[in-house]
Amino acid sequence: MASRLNPYISFAGDARQAMEFYKEVFGGTLALNTYGEYGDSDAPEAANIMHGMLETPAGFTLMGADSPPGMASTPGTNISVSVSGDDESELRGYWEKLSADGSVSVPLERQMWGDVFGMCTDRFGIAWMVNIRGQQG
Hints:
Layout lengths: L3 E8 L3 H12 L2 E6 L14 E7 L5 E6 L12 E7 L2 H12 L3 E8 L5 E6 L5 E6 L5
Parallel strand pairs: 1-4, 5-8
Antiparallel strand pairs: 1-5, 2-3, 3-4, 6-7, 7-8
Pfam families: Glyoxalase
Protein name: 3-demethylubiquinone-9 3-methyltransferase
């Protein structure tokens, strides 16, 4: 699979409603995963969206999620750029260049959903997420 670059929006508890709205606007297929599917299903935020992805017939991809517990969602600073795919070498190369002279908020490492994932802000203040699908080790 080729790497993909798309916007990723953080919401303050209404990601499900927002992503369903965008599906009404653009059409396509919407996949939603909750925090409860990957953690404590009894936690207050268990029904919140951990990851949502809308893929449209026009070829658009829009991702979004509710901000994790303890992390603020501030309109105007709640959009990141996501780069994802399964080419580990290519994506690690992007990560190294994007995070150089920037700041890393989540190190590029294996996450609870099984992928290698990291978040950084580049030297120009742009937030990036890199996700390497299906990597073992």
